[in-house]
UniProtKB/TrEMBL annotation:
Residues 104-348 form the Sialate O-acetylesterase domain. GO terms for molecular function: sialate O-acetylesterase activity. The keyword Ligase does not apply. InterPro entries: SASA, SGNH_hydro_sf, SIAE. Pfam families: SASA (PF03629). It comes from the Bacteria. This is Sialate O-acetylesterase. Keywords: Hydrolase. GO terms for biological process: carbohydrate metabolic process.
């Protein structure tokens, strides 16, 4: 009889523990929920267990019954920005989510230039530390993890921005979020899910890479490293998939350096990745990214081709690209130190494009078309408000070629949204290139001071 009693007691203790109400890490105290949106709350409990959800901004009490698979989820409506709030969830056990804010939430991902932080010696961050404390900027830093299949949780916590939490957080993400918070006057939540060295394949579901011959072939050329994964889907499964039920306003991305050797497939890969994220989240959120910076890659023009591939992704819906050719002080350093202005340019994309803030210049000039006119080529550009101009002296990094495909430095005359390009030694010009090299840094800008995007008018094989 005593043994039976012990067994019965053990069974009920075990069953009770097994049925404990649980939530994923991203749904926790100190989080930021997306404002004015239908957001999902979800987690685990005992099969058939009724979960009661009490939201402090609503008079309504919401309930949901846990499925036979021990999972539950419920959609709730969030109000305008505000807080802090306490959300109460009750089943057989209870959970309280405290110090919750309502605001704008962004995913920040990519490789090392997104990951780079104060711990990497960035002067921009060191200067911020004495005054960076802000309870209305919250961080969620996903640790580096891989998985063979999509996971349902990560090991991370929400924290407020202060001189300790900022040191290890993405500098680009921080400056992006700081600008949004200032201009929108709402709390901002930043989810940093980045890993230095990673190619875009690891952030893309494996079946989408392996199921396409072009992408599969490019992925097979990735060079293994001891510092980061290269298996398609491995970072997506562990560092993105668990976040996809969590409502976000959009994503920012800084990556591409590890794909320069397979630039020919990057546009398709990148578009596929963006599309897969949007499909997983269930809506077409804005996606803004940084064009890779000038750097002395060797050999060839592989970085120029990667930038060209990134530019082509601007045709994909709801995307935007920050050009940063003017923000580099050392082309032998693949990690430019100026992360402040990179974050600001991404923020201006979000403010102008996603949030509709008027009067913001956030688009770099882009090559539109060319005309051949009596030994010259006339180039036309979009986003050239205020007219094209140099930062000093003659326009540089323009090259022109004739039928022999031999490019020589060009003479350039800037007129409004046009550039008239010629060279005395090229009598029949056929093509123009601007800053189309690994480390080229041009000096042409629009009236708002945004640099002209590198381009070529030809499609000659490199």
């Amino acid at each position: 009889m005593p043994r039976l009693l012990v067994t019965v007691c053990f069974f009920f203790v075990y069953a009770g523990a097994f049925a404990q109400l649980r939530l994923p890490a991203v749904l926790s105290s100190n989080m930021v929920l997306q404002r004015n949106a239908t957001v999902k709350l979800w987690g685990w409990a005992g099969p058939g267990e009724k979960i009661i959800v009490r939201l402090p901004w609503s008079k309504k009490v919401d309930t949901v019954v846990t499925s036979r698979d021990a999972r539950w989820s419920i959609d709730v409506q969030t109000p305008e920005a505000g807080g802090p709030y306490t959300i109460a969830l009750d089943g057989r056990t209870s959970v309280k989510l405290e110090n919750v804010l309502i605001g704008e939430v962004w995913v920040c991902s990519g490789q090392s230039n997104m990951e780079w932080s104060g711990n990497h010696g960035l002067k921009d961050i060191k200067a911020e530390l004495p005054s960076c404390a802000d309870n209305n900027i919250r961080f969620f830093h996903v640790p580096k993890t891989t998985a063979a299949y999509p996971q349902d949780d990560v090991k991370a916590t929400w924290t407020a921005c202060d001189s300790n939490t900022l040191k290890s957080f993405s500098a680009v993400a921080y400056f992006f979020g700081k600008k949004l918070k200032k201009e929108l006057n709402v709390p901002v939540g930043l989810i940093n899910s980045s890993w230095g060295g990673t190619p875009a394949e690891v952030w893309t579901p494996a079946e989408l890479v392996q199921g396409d011959e072009k992408l599969k072939s490019a992925a097979a050329k990735l060079a293994p490293s001891n510092g980061w994964p290269f298996t398609p889907g491995s970072s997506y499964n562990a560092m993105i998939a668990p976040l996809t039920p969590f409502r976000v306003a959009g994503a920012i991305w800084y990556q591409g350096e590890s794909n320069v050797n397979t630039a020919y497939g990057y546009t398709q890969l990148f578009n596929t990745m963006i599309g897969s994220w949007r499909k997983a989240w269930g809506y077409d959120f804005p996606f803004y990214y940084v064009q890779i910076a000038p750097f002395r890659y060797t050999p060839g023009q592989k970085a120029a081709l990667l930038r060209e591939a990134q530019t082509a992704s601007l045709q994909y819906p709801r995307t935007g690209m920050a050009v940063i050719t003017d923000l580099v002080d050392d082309t032998t350093n693949i990690h430019p130190q100026n992360k402040h202005d990179v974050g600001l340019r991404l923020a201006n994309w979000a403010l102008g494009d996603a949030y509709g803030k008027p009067g913001l210049a956030y688009k770099s000039p882009l090559y539109e078309k060319m005309e051949q006119q009596k030994g010259k080529i006339v180039l036309y550009f979009t986003n050239a408000e205020g007219g094209l101009k140099t930062s000093g002296g003659k326009a540089t990094q323009f090259f022109i070629a004739g039928p022999d495909k031999q490019f020589v430095p060009a003479d350039v005359k800037l007129e409004g949204n046009k550039a008239i390009v010629s060279a005395k030694t090229v009598k029949q010009p056929e093509a123009v290139r601007f800053s189309f090299s690994n480390a080229g840094m041009g000096n042409v800008f629009n009236g708002a001071g945004l640099p002209l995007n590198p381009f070529r008018t030809d499609n000659w094989e490199e």
